[in-house]
Amino acid sequence: MESGIAESNTSTRLNPIMYGVVDTQQACNCSIQSKDTFFETEYFQSFSDSYRMFRYVLNIAILLPCSILGLAGNALSFVVFRKSGRTMTSTFLLLKTLAVADSLILIYCLFFICVPNLTMIKSTPLLEKYMVFIAESIPYSYPVFFILLALANWIVVLVGLERFIAICHPFRAKLLCTLSKTKKHIIAVFVLAIAFGLPRFWELKVLTVIDSRCHPSCGKVEKQLSVVFTDFGRDPVYVYAYRIVWHTLEIVVIPLIMVGYFNVHLLASLHKMDENGKRLFGQRASTRSTNIMLVVVVLVFIVCQLPLCLTHIINPFRPFFSVVAQDNFQYALETAICLALINHALNFWVYYVAGKRFRRVFMETLFPCCVVPEPRESNGIPLHATPTP
Could you give the maximum distance between any two Cα atoms of the chain, in Å? Predict the structure, then answer.
């Protein structure tokens, strides 16, 4: 961290809003104004009180409880998937990995987005110390956050691909949807997410700025921590090529296109099976329940991520908007960001509502006395005991 002062008798004054990055126009001196999503900017101080209250409602009244409930739900999901089959399957491995990635994202939301917004209402010495920690850790936590976003979104793509192969190409499922291949796919996604996210570790730095209003004769020098772009992060080519174009494609656009393609074919195949009144190659009721559950997971992902995709595409053209349109777009952008983050808290509830098998295992795990014995086939094997391919 760079510092402009070496005195020990100092007090640290941190602007409660300044825990993010400056806007791209300030960063690279270019004509376009592109705010890096999920983080505050220095010009936030000039926003209206209504906008501040809007952000407070989004991040405290909505995102905070959703993050807490989502963490609890993801933990329960992880436990249920461990008990869902007598043998590990590729589907359960993907869903457990997704639960871990979603939980890490929600932890970031709690400590780096929700808690700092509390300082909009009241600042205490404890919160000021916490904001110092936030500012000093942003250059490292910021890239990790985007790595986790990429990992979670691409795990959803793997879930859609796995179901697409199992339902639309069942003869190839036993060859392609194996546990070993799924582990390799998860590792590959993780490595690529880290590789593509590495440049962000050189984007930001922390500066300590002396408050010019404080006279040395007071015996106490106040300073303000500021998170700014490095020379590398301000480079116009890097800003346009990586932070705008590649970021939008990698985390939002390409995953949405892929899961959308998979889901269209999945829904068509399931509908065709219903019309014919057939089970797909002897699959049991539990497998059908899992298929429906995962289709709904992908649908929820599309609904929650699509607004963010649209705002990312529109964002580079914001300088051409009128002042009123830019203000309205800012509200839309914040709403899209909040909705995309909430998506990482919803999967447990989707599993419970849309997954009959998940509900049964959940009840057997937490409330075994309330579970009615499940029907069995003629050979004595429970209908819900067969693992999903």
Answer: 91
Q: What angle do CA 187, 188, 194 make, to 5 degrees?
A: 90
CA gap 154, 152 in Å, rounded: 6
Label each residue of 113-142 as H, E or C: HHHHHHHHCCCCHHHHHHHHHHHHHHHHHH
Q: Is residue 16 part of a domain?
A: yes
Q: Is residue 386 part of a domain?
A: no
Task: Return all residues near 282 (Cβ < 8 A) that are at least 6 apart.
Answer: none
Place of tokens 């509200």: 331
Q: Are 177 and 183 in contact (CB under 8 A)?
A: no
pLDDT in tens, 139-184: 899 899 999 999 999 999 999 999 888 888 888 888 888 889 999 9
Q: Quick one: which of 153, 120, 119 has its CA closest to 133? A: 119
SS3 215: coil
Report the domain count for the chain: 1
Residue 218: DSSP 8-state: G
Confidence grade of residue 18 (pLDDT, cut at 50, 70, 90) = very low
CA distance 40 to 113: 9
Report how far residue 275's alpha carbon sits from residue 69's, in angstroms, rounded to the nearest whole number: 38
Pair 191, 119: CB distance under 8 Å: no
Q: How far apart, in whole angstroms, are the C-alpha atoms of residue 118 and residue 50?
A: 16
Q: What is the DSSP string of 334-382?
A: HHHHHHHHHGGG-HHHHHHHH-HHHHHHHHHHH-GGGPPPPPB-TTS-B
Distance CA 132, CA 215 (A): 23
**pTM of this structure:** 0.80
Residue 314 placed within a domain? yes
The answer to whether residue 389 sits within a structural domain is: no
Provide the Cα torsion 107, 110, 112, 118; round to 10°: -170
Q: Which residues face 3 on adjacent strands?
A: 208
Number of neighbouring beta carbons within 10 Å of residue 195: 10
Summarised one tens digit per residue, pLDDT across range 252-272 is 899 999 999 998 888 888 777
What CATH number does residue 349 fall under?
Answer: 1.20.1070.10
